[in-house]
Design a protein that fits this description.
By secondary structure, this protein is of the alpha+beta class. Among the domains are: 18-117, Winged helix-like DNA-binding domain superfamily/Winged helix DNA-binding domain (Arc Repressor Mutant, subunit A, Orthogonal Bundle); 185-313, 3-Layer(aba) Sandwich (Rossmann fold), CATH 3.40.50; 515-624, no CATH class. Helices cover 50% and strands 11% of the residues. Strands 8, 9, 10, 11, 12 and 13 form a six-stranded mixed sheet that branches. The chain has a five-stranded antiparallel sheet with strand order 4-3-2-1-7, with no helix packed on it. It has a two-stranded antiparallel ribbon with strand order 5-6. A hairpin with a 3-residue loop joins strand 5 (101-104) and strand 6. Helix 5 packs across helix 7 (289-306), helix 12 packs antiparallel against helix 13 and helix 22 (580-590) packs antiparallel against helix 23. It is globular, with a radius of gyration of 26 Å. The two termini are 30 Å apart.
Length: 662
């Protein structure tokens, strides 16, 4: 059988440790670390890095790397693409995906960094210590030290300082002057609608969003996340203030006017440090779908030229929204995108618009992707498990159609992977995610990968991607919400709270404490008093939960009595409503009954796998140690995926076939 990613089946040669900048690379440990964080790599990923490090500054072809690391043809090409993506996420501490490992078009890859040696200590002065598992950045709950060494204490203070600094940046508690602005960075603002019809605002904003998406394909250029509709090309626009807020060196702004069968666009690029215009241009085109796609590419290419970035832009048919010849269908797509991106409409309105786009152009792959994801998302609020499964099945069929219609559309693969995982086809889902990364590792794809990895239990890896997404897209509430969940699942509660606060400020209109916040806070240890307060707060936020939680709240002064109430509610089917089984399971776990929590989760997962990621948090550590948990993971077919793609943070192999979780 071909050697698969992360299998570790072939003997690995011993390699000496080395440095890449400030990073320490330990090949024999499959680890890369700096002063604050330690990343575990899959064996094949480390082999790719070592092959590049053996020849620093030299261009190595893809085939050479495949021959050296895999020695096989089938599946190795996509494995190499994934390995490069993972290495960039770890090596580039400035969050720039392509600065350390460079892609040389049509030739291969080059490690653009100096390799440093690591001094080998005198063997006589070193006392051999028993080998122990590599410690991740967050201390594992099963490793309980009786003492904390001064080094660990200082390291903890350093980490805390970094988290506090990051928190201040994210929620505006620190001065913007302390934040470094990358030289090659840009924000694309919503273009101003000069057509005299406010109903056409969605078109001007949608067009600028498509330009932003295209620019994400340019290497070495950091693209800020979408700006909300309130930020636009107004007369009193202050580019310097925007530069500080969005942390970019340039902003692209402009205006759009449509007259009968023509569209006129004026675009300008502004240096946010000086406020000066560095480039501007006017475009006058016939109003058709193809002319719009050409216009988007022309503007992005001109902007790249103005920034002196002479790198390749992928073909338009690889970009979301550009695979239709129907201007009418494209209009409906942009209108739906407006409601989706900025939260300016309800889901029923969004679905109606996407259905119209697909009715006009049945081959519109990008519209089918959006329709698939939003159809499946209805399962979150389904009234019964059967209704949820129906929504997911419908969404999966649409995702399958999207892949068939446009095999180059990266998000079609992550959409299909999402549904495959929810249907227990984890291996196929993992392979589809690889295919998506191979086509376009943009922010949308990386966000989808984050959700997938958290469901699969690979939360450390998901966090790394989520942090990059938040850095690149700081005004996107989805990024902040996902980051908060990743922190919570890893037990980093202060960072989770900061991300959650940031998420609330980004909602439109700004929101506050809700069921999502309750889910995150329930990963933190609770006393009877704090658990009672949280349940009361949840009822206040969602009065529909009063009948479920009132008897629990009344019984909570007595732990045993409260557990009896939770079990009675579960047996009576009181959880048969969206998220209510999860609520009961979380309370059972906090009341130190992991077996009851596992019974409830088993019942929940028989309905849908949507909330699967929650089980990897610290609140369920005791539940994961139960034999029944490993059996449950086997039933939903996760172990074969782990063996091929990498083990989760909280499970590890025990022999060839067995595994244990903690």
């Amino acid at each position: 059988m071909a050697d698969t990613f992360g299998s570790g089946t072939e003997a690995e040669r011993e390699r000496s440790n080395f440095r890449i900048g400030a990073l320490l690379v330990e090949p024999d440990q499959n680890c890369i670390s700096d002063e604050t964080e330690r990343h575990r790599l899959e064996p094949k990923v480390m082999e790719v890095l070592c092959a590049l490090a053996d020849r620093p500054g030299e261009v190595i072809s893809r085939q050479e790397l495949i021959d050296e690391v895999w020695g096989v043809e089938h599946g190795a090409d996509e494995s190499l693409t994934r390995a490069i993506s993972l290495l960039r996420s770890v090596l580039n501490t400035d969050k720039d995906l392509h600065s350390v490992i460079e892609t040389i078009p049509k030739r291969g890859y080059r490690l653009a960094a100096e390799i440093g040696e690591v001094a080998v200590p005198d063997a006589s002065a070193v006392t051999a210590a028993p080998e122990e598992p590599v410690a991740p950045f967050v201390r594992e709950p099963w490793r309980r030290d009786t003492e904390i060494s001064p080094i660990r204490y200082v390291s903890a203070l350093v980490v805390l300082a970094i988290i506090m600094l990051w928190t201040g940046v994210m929620i505006g508690r620190s001065s913007s002057s302390t934040v470094a602005v990358p030289d090659k960075s840009i924000a694309v603002l919503p273009f101003e609608n000069l057509s005299g019809n406010a109903e056409q605002d969605y078109f001007s904003r949608g067009l600028s969003e498509e330009i932003r998406t295209l620019l994400t394909q340019l290497d070495e250029l950091k693209i800020a996340g979408r700006a909300p509709p309130s930020v636009g090309a107004a007369e009193d626009l202050d580019p310097q203030a925007l530069g500080r807020k969005l942390r970019v060196s340039h902003v692209l702004t402009g205006s759009i006017r449509s007259d009968n069968d023509r569209i006129k666009v004026s675009a300008e690029l502004i240096d946010t440090s000086s406020g000066y215009q560095v480039w501007s241009h006017g475009y006058d085109r016939l109003l058709s779908a193809q002319s719009l796609f050409d216009l988007q590419k022309d503007i992005a290419t001109d902007v790249a030229g103005a920034l002196s970035i002479s790198l390749h832009v992928q073909e338009p048919n690889r970009l979301l929204g550009s695979d239709t010849d129907s201007l009418e269908a494209y209009n409906y797509f942009l209108s739906a995108r407006e409601a989706d991106v900025f939260g300016m409409g309800d889901r029923s309105e969004l679905l109606a618009l996407l259905h119209k786009a697909v009715e006009i152009d049945p081959d519109y792959g990008a519209a089918r992707v959006a329709l698939a994801m939003n159809t499946g998302a209805q399962a979150w609020s389904a009234s019964t498990p059967e209704e949820a499964q129906a929504f997911l099945a419908e969404g999966q069929a649409m995702a399958e159609d999207a892949v068939r219609l446009n095999p180059d559309l990266a998000q079609a693969y992550t959409a299909r992977a999402n549904f495959q995982a929810l249907d227990d086809n984890w291996l196929e889902a993992g392979r589809d995610n690889r295919a998506a990364l191979d086509r376009s590792p943009n922010l949308r794809i990386l966000h989808d990968q984050t959700i997938f990895l958290m469901r699969a239990g690979r939360v450390e890896e998901a966090l790394s991607i989520a942090q990059r997404g938040q850095s690149a897209d700081p005004l996107n509430p989805d990024r902040a919400a996902t980051l908060a969940m990743a922190y919570a699942l890893l037990g980093r509660h202060e960072a989770a709270e900061a991300s959650l606060e940031h998420y609330w400020t980004l909602q439109m209109p700004p929101g506050g404490w809700d069921a999502y916040a309750w889910t995150i806070e329930m990963q933190r240890p609770q006393t009877l008093e704090s658990l009672t307060a949280l349940c009361e707060r949840l009822v206040a936020a969602d009065p529909s939960l009063r009948n479920l939680l009132a008897p629990v709240i009344a019984a909570l002064p007595d732990r045993a009595e409260a557990l009896e109430v939770v079990e009675t509610l579960f047996e009576a089917g009181a959880g048969a409503h969206p998220n209510r089984f999860e609520i009961l399971a979380a309370i059972a776990a906090q009341l130190d009954d992991p077996e009851l929590a596992l019974r409830i989760w088993r019942h929940e997962l028989e309905g849908t796998r949507l909330r699967l990621m929650r089980i990897w948090g610290p609140a369920y550590a005791d539940m994961r140690r139960l034999p029944g948990f490993a059996s449950l993971m086997t039933e939903i077919r996760l172990p074969p995926y782990w063996r091929e793609f990498g083990w989760p943070d909280r499970c590890r192999p025990a022999g060839e076939q067995d595994f244990e979780c903690f």
